[in-house]
Amino acid sequence: LRRVKALSDIISSKDVLDFGCGEGGFLDNAKELSKSVCGIELDRHERETLVNEEGYTVWESFEQCNKKFDVITIFHVIEHLEYPIQILEQCRSHLNKNGKIIIETPNADDALLSLYQSKEFADFTYWSAHIYLYNEKNLLKLIKKADYKVSWCKQIQRYPLSNHLFWLSEGRPGGQAVYNILNDKVLNEQYSKILSENKLCDTLMVCLEV
After folding, report:
1. Which one of 47, 57, 114, 130 is separated from 195 by 20 to 30 angstroms, measured CA to CA?
2. How would you classify the pairing of strands 203-209 and 95-106?
3. What pLDDT digit, counting tens, does each position of 5-35 carry?
């Protein structure tokens, strides 16, 4: 829902493909706003559930996909890809004229890693499924190598100050449910602003154009 709200102007009345759509959360929230929504999902169980029980069009790979799209979204997937440039090249052949690609990925310069240097959070983040981690600098380099133009790149802080303090004090997530006295809107907006200005947010989102 957060992503749909952030991208409403981009996906409105557009044909949208969600690459790595998982259980279909983005598809569920985007379908009323978009012209059409489809997905690509490697996991057979999740793919078959979306197709057979939810009625979505979901392919296993780009090779099976026979359509072009106005927007392709790649949410928290690129860090799992061994050959990300190859996938971005495949995206290009499935984009309509003036199409866009939206990538969201964890930020390797997350404050918990680069500022606070939380060992517990590092152990939580550096696991085998994360083949690469990107900060703003190397993500933009990757995009340039794939021969795309960057329309915009945004720092997004998904988790509040209470979450960070809980990691530092207890070494685990979920602080927003424990230190709820700190769940103040103004406080967290200012905290997010400071992190964004210093490129220390937990998430990166970038918009690409051919």
Report:
1. 130
2. antiparallel
3. 999 999 999 999 999 999 999 999 999 999 9
